[in-house]
Design goal:
The chain is an all-alpha fold. It has four helices and no strands. InterPro entries: YgaP-like_TM.
């Protein structure tokens, strides 16, 4: 019984059945559809190895337009989001360092030097 459940879970989780978010909209999607149809038509008319390459590129563009999802675009968006997160962390660390520097300068501005180096002549009775 558990083997049947595992097989059913595997079947439900195939990449063909998973629904991905759409990241291609509007004119970009229409352009992919139109460009895919044109490239496939040119590839079919041309023939040969270069026609096959055009046919493949057109098929990818057509699939991008039909599904509304582009894996390359989602990878770029993900890396852009990660870059913005790192940038925010760096800016926050810079602000923290600026604040620490200001606090250190404020703390040392009122300090006086006594001339007593505690490593060479420690205070007695402490």
């Amino acid at each position: 019984m558990t083997d049947i459940k595992r097989v059913a879970e595997r079947i439900e989780s195939t990449p063909f059945q998973t629904h991905t978010e759409r990241n291609v909209h509007g004119w970009e999607r229409a352009g992919s559809l139109a460009g895919g149809v044109v490239m496939m038509g040119k590839g079919l008319r041309r023939g040969g190895i270069f026609g096959l390459i055009q046919l493949a590129i057109g098929g990818v563009a057509l699939a991008r337009g039909i599904t509304g999802h582009c894996s390359a675009k989602s990878l770029l968006e993900k890396s852009r989001h990660e870059m913005n997160t790192v940038r925010a962390k760096i800016e926050r660390a810079g602000d923290d360092l600026t604040r620490l520097k200001a606090n250190a300068e404020a703390a040392t501005s009122t300090a006086t030097v006594t001339g007593n180096d505690s490593l060479t002549s420690p205070k007695t009775g402490v």
